[in-house]
Amino acid sequence: MAAYAVVMDNLKERAEFMNESMQKSQTITDNMISILGSFDHRLSALETAMRPTQIRTHSIRKAHENIDKTLKVAESILDQFDLARQTEAKILRGPHEDLESYLAAVNQLRSIVKFFSSTKGLKSSIGMINHASNLLAKSVLKLEEEFRQLLTLYSKPVEPDRLFDCLPQSLRPSTGSPNKGDGTGTKEHQRSLETVVYRPPALIPPRILPLLHELAQQMIQAGHQQQLYTIYKETRSIVVEQSLRKLGVERLGKEDVQKMQWEVLEAKIGNWIHFMRISVKLLFAAEKKVSDQVFEGQDSLRDQCFAEVTGNSVAVLLSFGEAIAKSKRSPEKLFVLLDMYEIMRELQSEMDTIFGSQYCSEMREAAKLLTDRLAETAQETFVDFEEAVEKDATKTAVLDGTVHPLTSYVINYVKFLFDYQSTLKQLFGDNDDGHSKDQLGVITTRILQALQSNLDGKSKQYKDPALTQLFLMNNIHYIVRSVRRSEAKDVLGDDWVQIHRRIVQQHANQYKRISWSKILQTLSVQGASPAGNASFTGEIVSSNTGISRSTVKDRFKTFNMLFEEIHQRQSQWTVPDSELRESLRLAVAEVLLPAYRSFAKRFGSMIEGGKNPQKYIRYTPEDLERMLAEFFEGKTWKGP
Q: What confidence tier does 109 reach under pLDDT thresholds 50, 70, 90?
């Protein structure tokens, strides 16, 4: 218990100590609050006393800031006055010495006007604005004149040789002619072998174009757009027209075309095709680049100017095509019409691109109209040609039965058609379903039918029916051989070839029957008289019973007379194809010589024992074979 009392006493002492400490801490806290309250009151009084001083200090600082701003504004105004004096000096000197500095001065002058327009509170601003505006008006007039002089100085017609150098190699002309030197039949092949690249010439030096562009922009900003349009149109259009005249382009109408000889007209059409290609792909393309750069950012003005510059030149070029399309149709014009149609189709995409704006719509429509008219005229010429072939009434005599000039003309015509397969495909509908190929086949078949019909009529002019058959054989064979060796075979087909080969054989058989049946009858021993029924096969009866010596003499005399007549006449006839000629001779020999050998062997002894046997047995089989080799050579007969 004693221990417990001690502990409690200690705790009581500690509690009393802690209580005393807390009372002392509260007293200290109350004192600090009192002191801080006093400080707050004093600071408040100090702030009140300082406020007027702070206000005066702020006002002074603002005043200094305003003074600085005013000084800066004054300085900038003085700078603008100074710039105005410098700019005025450059403007008055003009643009000739240093165009780029002059353009910079004009831009500076505009900035000065803009500056003083925003500071109209100054009394001097109005005067400066008026002065600067007057200077700007003068500068624009000088810029207008500078634009005119600079554009005129560097706008020169393009020499033809320079344009030719921009063409692909295969399209460059031979010396002395603007026409390309490739043949019609190889043109598509040549184009496929060469990568065709056209390089339009630079009509104005590249370093000048940015200056012209800047001058144009200055004139537009000053409201001188109409003057700019007029200057550009007049200057560039003249140069384009001069370039075309130097190239050889001339304005020709329908009346001019009708008066020309065909050779002259054909040459002019060839030149026109070349001129169209050069004009569109080189000259007009280059002109478009010039207008694009000069009027960059001014689309409407650019398109108007380009349309005006090129409009008359395009019209001159297309007018010649129109004159040809409207002129009197004739077969020889078909291929030049196809050439013209082909170049218009070739240039269509370029025309649509170069003359793509609304202001060039008339030119695009005129080009399309010409293309359609050329196609229509070409199609009508096909019909005309077919009718002309069928009705050809030329009196050209083919006395030897050879190939008629009409036949070779028509076949060459058909061959040329197949050099234009891609063009004809476009002409007949421009599709890939085989229709255009069928159309070409139909046209070719009709033309050849018309030719055969005409040849049938011409064959009736011969008095000798054997020559009629030889003539038809020669001509149909020429047609078949030509078709087999050309692309026409793929269109007409093997059936057509086989049918017409049989026709050739039929005419050959008819020739043999008409020419040689009568003479073979003299070698026939069928019956008792020479007028017996001999077959063309030359069959000889083994028995000579019933044929007297005088009959045999008559037979040999008749044979000699008939063979000599045939030899004299048919050695002047012609079979121009060597293979056909040899096969026809062989066919005759295979019938005639065995019959003659057999007859001479059986009955020759009856003559040889008599007087003058050579009078009757005039030829040996070898003599006949040699003389047959002279047939169809077109030579004058000279006797055995």
A: low
- Determine the 3-state secondary structure of 527 from DSSP: coil
Q: Specify the pLDDT at position 528.
A: 36
| Span 155-191, pLDDT tens digits | 999 999 999 999 988 888 765 455 544 444 445 444 4
pLDDT higher than threshold 80 for residue 138: no
Q: What angle do CA 330, 335, 336 make, to 5 degrees?
A: 85
Distance separating alpha carbons of residues 308 and 236, to the nearest angstrom: 9
Residue 42, sorted as left (phi over 0), alpha (psi -120 to 50) or beta, turns out to be: alpha
In contact, 102 and 91? CB cutoff 8 Å: yes
Residues 81-106 pLDDT 10s: 555 555 555 565 656 666 666 666 66
d(CA 422, CA 425): 5
What is the DSSP secondary-structure string of 81-150? HHHHHHHHHHHHH-SSS-HHHHHHHHHHHHHHHHHHHT-TTSHHHHHHHHHHHHHHHHHHHHHHHHHHHH
Burial label, 233 (beta-carbon count in 10 A; 0-12, 13-18, 19+): middle
Question: Buried b vs exposed e over 90-114: b needs ≥16 C-beta within 10 Å?
Answer: bbeebbeeebeebbebbebbbebbe
What is the C-alpha to C-alpha distance for residues 551 and 559, in angstroms, rounded to an integer?
12
Say what the pTM is.
Answer: 0.71
Phi-psi region of 430 (alpha: psi -120 to 50; beta: other; left: phi over 0): left
Question: Virtual CA dihedral for 482, 483, 484, 485, nearest 10 degrees?
Answer: 50
CB 536 within 8 A of CB 592: no
- Measured CA to CA, the distance from residue 341 to residue 339 in angstroms comes to 5
